[in-house]
Amino acid sequence: MRCVIARFPFELTKSGVLESMKGIKPEQVMGExxxxxxxxxxxxxxxxxITRQDRRDxxxxxxxxxxxRLGFTCRALPKAVPVGMPGSLRQxxxxxxxxxxx
Length: 102
Description:
Number of helices: 4
Oligomer: single chain
Strand order of the largest sheet: 4-3-5
Number of strands: 5
Helix content: 25-40%
Largest sheet: 3 strands, antiparallel
Structural class: alpha+beta
Order of helices and strands: EEHEEHHEH
Radius of gyration: 20 Å
């Protein structure tokens, strides 16, 4: 499949991506990820490996579009609950005016 990443055309295949990522240790996922085989790789790491370009030269969206079109599963990092956010019981008790001791 032909795709453009960082204004450069690339001919990518699913088997070619699998081969390129073989033996590459996944970095810690902090944002969007691509599942290749059984591993979750950060999108920017995948883009760097398959294009051999610096991560600053392309966007995560470009790589996500290409990986999705090739049939890979792409995931966004779930939004975390902010620290200090009251739990549902504490919130409900607060609305009723009854403080809950934990």
